[in-house]
Amino acid sequence: MLFDISCDMFEDKDLKIKEAIKLMLLNCIKERKMHGYALMKKISEERGKKTSTGVIYPILAELEEDGLIKSEKDEQNKKFYKVTIKGLRYLNRRKEKLKEITEHMNKIREFEKMGAGQLRDALRTAFIKFDILNEKQKKRISKILKNASKEIRYIVEFGD
To answer: Is pLDDT of 25 > 90?
Structure first.
Protein backbone atom coordinates (compact mmCIF):
# COMPACT_ATOMS: atom_id res chain seq x y z
CA MET A 1 0.00 0.00 0.00
CA LEU A 2 1.05 3.61 0.39
CA PHE A 3 4.56 4.25 1.66
CA ASP A 4 5.76 0.69 1.22
CA ILE A 5 8.87 2.46 -0.02
CA SER A 6 10.31 1.91 3.44
CA CYS A 7 10.57 -1.77 2.56
CA ASP A 8 11.97 -1.33 -0.95
CA MET A 9 15.42 -2.22 0.36
CA PHE A 10 14.08 -5.74 0.87
CA GLU A 11 13.62 -8.02 -2.14
CA ASP A 12 11.32 -10.54 -0.43
CA LYS A 13 9.66 -8.11 1.96
CA ASP A 14 8.12 -10.59 4.44
CA LEU A 15 11.23 -12.74 4.74
CA LYS A 16 13.54 -9.76 5.10
CA ILE A 17 11.32 -8.06 7.67
CA LYS A 18 11.28 -11.28 9.69
CA GLU A 19 15.10 -11.43 9.56
CA ALA A 20 15.28 -7.77 10.56
CA ILE A 21 13.01 -8.41 13.55
CA LYS A 22 15.12 -11.44 14.52
CA LEU A 23 18.25 -9.31 14.59
CA MET A 24 16.48 -6.51 16.43
CA LEU A 25 15.20 -8.96 19.06
CA LEU A 26 18.63 -10.48 19.57
CA ASN A 27 20.16 -7.02 19.82
CA CYS A 28 17.56 -5.96 22.41
CA ILE A 29 18.26 -8.91 24.70
CA LYS A 30 22.03 -9.10 24.29
CA GLU A 31 22.54 -6.63 27.16
CA ARG A 32 19.86 -7.89 29.53
CA LYS A 33 17.07 -10.43 29.61
CA MET A 34 13.61 -9.17 28.70
CA HIS A 35 10.10 -10.59 28.62
CA GLY A 36 8.03 -10.88 25.44
CA TYR A 37 5.75 -7.91 26.05
CA ALA A 38 8.70 -5.57 26.70
CA LEU A 39 10.35 -6.87 23.54
CA MET A 40 7.17 -6.28 21.55
CA LYS A 41 6.98 -2.68 22.80
CA LYS A 42 10.69 -2.08 22.12
CA ILE A 43 10.54 -3.49 18.57
CA SER A 44 7.36 -1.50 17.85
CA GLU A 45 9.10 1.64 19.06
CA GLU A 46 12.22 0.94 16.99
CA ARG A 47 10.21 0.15 13.86
CA GLY A 48 7.89 3.09 14.35
CA LYS A 49 5.09 0.65 13.67
CA LYS A 50 3.06 -1.61 15.97
CA THR A 51 4.46 -5.11 15.96
CA SER A 52 1.96 -7.66 17.25
CA THR A 53 2.40 -10.62 19.54
CA GLY A 54 1.49 -12.76 16.51
CA VAL A 55 4.76 -11.64 14.95
CA ILE A 56 7.04 -11.45 18.00
CA TYR A 57 6.26 -14.72 19.79
CA PRO A 58 6.67 -17.04 16.78
CA ILE A 59 10.03 -15.42 16.05
CA LEU A 60 11.06 -15.78 19.71
CA ALA A 61 10.06 -19.46 19.55
CA GLU A 62 12.12 -19.90 16.39
CA LEU A 63 15.12 -18.16 17.94
CA GLU A 64 14.83 -20.42 20.98
CA GLU A 65 14.45 -23.53 18.82
CA ASP A 66 17.59 -22.51 16.90
CA GLY A 67 19.49 -22.11 20.18
CA LEU A 68 20.06 -18.39 19.70
CA ILE A 69 18.11 -17.45 22.84
CA LYS A 70 16.83 -19.27 25.87
CA SER A 71 13.95 -18.55 28.16
CA GLU A 72 13.77 -18.60 31.92
CA LYS A 73 10.86 -18.06 34.28
CA ASP A 74 11.11 -15.77 37.27
CA GLU A 75 9.42 -16.09 40.67
CA GLN A 76 6.13 -14.80 39.25
CA ASN A 77 6.31 -17.38 36.44
CA LYS A 78 7.05 -14.63 33.87
CA LYS A 79 9.06 -15.83 30.91
CA PHE A 80 12.23 -13.86 30.18
CA TYR A 81 14.50 -14.31 27.19
CA LYS A 82 18.24 -13.99 27.07
CA VAL A 83 20.68 -14.41 24.25
CA THR A 84 22.99 -17.44 24.15
CA ILE A 85 26.64 -17.58 23.07
CA LYS A 86 25.42 -19.00 19.76
CA GLY A 87 23.03 -16.04 19.49
CA LEU A 88 25.83 -13.56 20.17
CA ARG A 89 27.94 -15.16 17.43
CA TYR A 90 24.96 -15.05 15.06
CA LEU A 91 24.42 -11.37 15.88
CA ASN A 92 28.12 -10.60 15.51
CA ARG A 93 28.25 -12.22 12.05
CA ARG A 94 25.33 -10.04 11.00
CA LYS A 95 26.39 -6.77 12.62
CA GLU A 96 26.64 -4.97 9.25
CA LYS A 97 23.09 -6.04 8.40
CA LEU A 98 21.92 -4.89 11.84
CA LYS A 99 23.64 -1.53 11.28
CA GLU A 100 21.88 -1.22 7.89
CA ILE A 101 18.52 -2.08 9.50
CA THR A 102 19.07 0.44 12.32
CA GLU A 103 19.98 3.20 9.85
CA HIS A 104 16.93 2.34 7.76
CA MET A 105 14.64 2.49 10.81
CA ASN A 106 16.13 5.86 11.77
CA LYS A 107 15.46 7.17 8.27
CA ILE A 108 11.84 5.96 8.46
CA ARG A 109 11.33 7.68 11.83
CA GLU A 110 12.81 10.94 10.53
CA PHE A 111 10.64 10.76 7.39
CA GLU A 112 7.58 10.20 9.59
CA LYS A 113 8.48 13.26 11.69
CA MET A 114 8.60 15.32 8.50
CA GLY A 115 4.92 14.55 7.95
CA ALA A 116 4.97 11.31 5.95
CA GLY A 117 2.61 9.66 8.43
CA GLN A 118 0.14 12.51 8.24
CA LEU A 119 0.30 12.47 4.45
CA ARG A 120 -0.19 8.70 4.37
CA ASP A 121 -3.23 9.01 6.66
CA ALA A 122 -4.71 11.82 4.56
CA LEU A 123 -4.21 9.83 1.35
CA ARG A 124 -5.75 6.75 2.94
CA THR A 125 -8.78 8.77 4.04
CA ALA A 126 -9.12 10.33 0.57
CA PHE A 127 -8.92 6.89 -1.02
CA ILE A 128 -11.49 5.37 1.35
CA LYS A 129 -13.90 8.27 0.81
CA PHE A 130 -13.09 8.67 -2.89
CA ASP A 131 -16.59 7.59 -4.00
CA ILE A 132 -18.28 10.36 -2.01
CA LEU A 133 -15.98 13.16 -3.22
CA ASN A 134 -17.45 15.53 -5.77
CA GLU A 135 -15.56 16.53 -8.93
CA LYS A 136 -14.41 19.84 -7.45
CA GLN A 137 -12.88 18.04 -4.44
CA LYS A 138 -11.20 15.45 -6.66
CA LYS A 139 -9.69 18.18 -8.88
CA ARG A 140 -8.44 20.07 -5.82
CA ILE A 141 -6.83 16.93 -4.36
CA SER A 142 -5.33 16.12 -7.77
CA LYS A 143 -3.81 19.59 -8.01
CA ILE A 144 -2.39 19.37 -4.47
CA LEU A 145 -0.86 15.95 -5.13
CA LYS A 146 0.67 16.94 -8.47
CA ASN A 147 2.12 20.16 -7.04
CA ALA A 148 3.49 18.40 -3.98
CA SER A 149 5.12 15.66 -6.07
CA LYS A 150 6.71 18.26 -8.40
CA GLU A 151 8.05 20.27 -5.46
CA ILE A 152 9.43 17.20 -3.69
CA ARG A 153 11.15 15.97 -6.86
CA TYR A 154 12.61 19.40 -7.47
CA ILE A 155 13.99 19.65 -3.91
CA VAL A 156 15.45 16.15 -4.05
CA GLU A 157 17.01 16.57 -7.49
CA PHE A 158 18.09 20.22 -7.44
CA GLY A 159 18.42 21.09 -3.76
CA ASP A 160 15.96 23.98 -3.44
So the answer is: yes
